[in-house]
Task: structure prediction
Amino acid sequence: MKQSQLFPKTRKEAPKEAVSINHKLLVRAGFIDQLMAGSWTLLPLGFRVVQKINQIIREEMNAVDAQEMLMPLLHPKEIWSETGRWDKADEIMYKLKDVHGKEYVLSFTHEEIVMDLLRKNIKSYQDLPVSVYHFSTKFRHEPRARSGILRGREFMMKDLYSAHATEKDLMDYYEKVKEAYRKIFNRLSFNFKVVEASGGVFTDKFTHEFQVLDAGGEDIIYTCDKCDFAQNREIFEGKEGESCPKCKEGKIVKKEGCVEVGNIFPLGTWYAERMGMYFTDKDGGKKLVWFGSYGIGPTRVMGTLVEVSHDEKGIIWHPQVAPFDVHLIELPGGHGEEVYRKLKDAGVDVLWDDREVSAGEKFSDADLIGIPVRLIVSGKTGDKIEWKERTSEKSELLSFEEITSRLNI
Amino acid sequence: MKQSQLFPKTRKEAPKEAVSINHKLLVRAGFIDQLMAGSWTLLPLGFRVVQKINQIIREEMNAVDAQEMLMPLLHPKEIWSETGRWDKADEIMYKLKDVHGKEYVLSFTHEEIVMDLLRKNIKSYQDLPVSVYHFSTKFRHEPRARSGILRGREFMMKDLYSAHATEKDLMDYYEKVKEAYRKIFNRLSFNFKVVEASGGVFTDKFTHEFQVLDAGGEDIIYTCDKCDFAQNREIFEGKEGESCPKCKEGKIVKKEGCVEVGNIFPLGTWYAERMGMYFTDKDGGKKLVWFGSYGIGPTRVMGTLVEVSHDEKGIIWHPQVAPFDVHLIELPGGHGEEVYRKLKDAGVDVLWDDREVSAGEKFSDADLIGIPVRLIVSGKTGDKIEWKERTSEKSELLSFEEITSRLNI
Result:
């Protein structure tokens, strides 16, 4: 698209209250806008990044036979009362009454609502397993709504839920989803650890968190420097520098500044017991359904990507999540429109800086926005195009065919 | 995908409380599930249809240079109070307080929130026009939440907003959007009228509704049988049978049972006046921004499609919005898996009925779900495949190549 039409313009200054890097850079570059504490509009650039993140997640969810759907956000009190959770997270749930006095809670999470849907539709072992997910909005009245888009009061979540006839089937699927999550976070280029966390009241097993390292976050984990052992601070009982309890060879290292981008829970039969979710097994007996839930926060993922990939000039997007494939910069004498048309015809997603501003302003905006490949056309480049990557100082003069070949088009 | 895995199974019986056709058929066929009055889960089949509807809308929005984004659903009272609308639609707005007493309203519509975003980012005539849209959730406490998915309390909306420096620019864009809406509803195969409606407090011009005819709805319009004159019942001052006030040649006809699937509003400067939304014009003067808003309800569109396209056996989807391109029915002796793989490899979106149930059950489910093309493989079809369309009694034996060629693959 034409940058002259892109809404909104970049900003020279970060908001006064912004402390975290993602807050400063995403607002300055025009990816997000704050409506109120913890509540953000995804502006056109930010929306594009989140759509690309979501598509990566969607492909890996579909690969484990999960089915996409969309569940409501306004939930009746009655269903949340069945598990006792109506009162549990009272402080951070948004509750309301309609004009007739009927009470609701805004989607804090969806376990109860999925369970209600399942019990209306699952009668027999032949109806299991079921695996469904959606991308939708969650509302949590976090006392500390800060860290930019890392901790919102209203935020996007991909939540997957699975129901099974046996514990073994649940745990086999749990491992499949753990592997799908590894693929997702690898595709997002994160340096992350799969970290054991408490099972809480739900299970005597561990749950797992996916923690991105060195991401400016508030989480602390303990990992082995040799094997894949990793636990969060709530459950780790050893000390930094000790031998690893798993491999015995490595040493335990403390990692601060982690950000949790995903978590998975083998919830067992806790929900089915409270919500009366039975199925008829092969032998004709009534059995409780085994249940798991699995979350990723796409908007938090976007913020974390900025925390781990930026420099003093701006954001550095990886190609797989960049808002555009290339940033075409037109300087005086360059055939911008012609190259723009040819790139679009070749299937390249282009942001074309067609604005009448100085070269310096164009380059500093391009650095701030962070599209990985910059193409420059000017009076000097003739029938060639200058190719420069966001992370390199080097630039090269290439033909149009060389450009599309490098872009793998 | 394999039908044995599809969630949920079809139902023989419609819900007792269901009156409208879309309610009965969409629930029986497994497209939607009711959480509470006016609140629906889009199940995997329904989600697929809505995604296809949304993609048609998205393409036509992008074609008029609108930019997709995503705005929050929880809105602060302060912003809604600026226009006085906090108190106006009190009965059908969902309002709430958080634990600190701060007041909010759930997204009833987004004019105020978009205006707030614009006034933070628009300073000069050079920043205009702006045209932004999103697909998101609206909450309206309708007293009558019935008619299936036609009238929900929580429902999906595509809402577009545009801001302009002059009335002329707003009205030119308004006509472009009207034309884009015509394209969308033509692509959805609707028999519809563009109907004049009152401008209310916003404008002395008309607003426009897009009304689908013979759709089992509650709206009544008056149209000319010769020209494109059409007005809704609130503003039409003549009588049925009179000469058309526009072309003078045709006669006025009353149409009952219409469903409004879209509406567009040239809101003028009403919002800018109340919210202090000024820009600096070329001459240095401060001027009010001209504003318009434009809505389509994708979930209501899905319900309306069912109302106008079904028979006694079930739904009849048009190919452009069908949940799958083809329904592959495997009967004993048929090479279902082989044909399924080949179709998928050819890029066809297939629902493969791999279930071990009778042929009768497979055919009646296929009629109910309503995918436009049915392919049957059995011991009798040999190395050919039987092609039967949902709306035809005729069936033909075709080769795989003939099938893909007919599907335009």
Observations:
- Chain A has two domains: 3-311, 326-406.
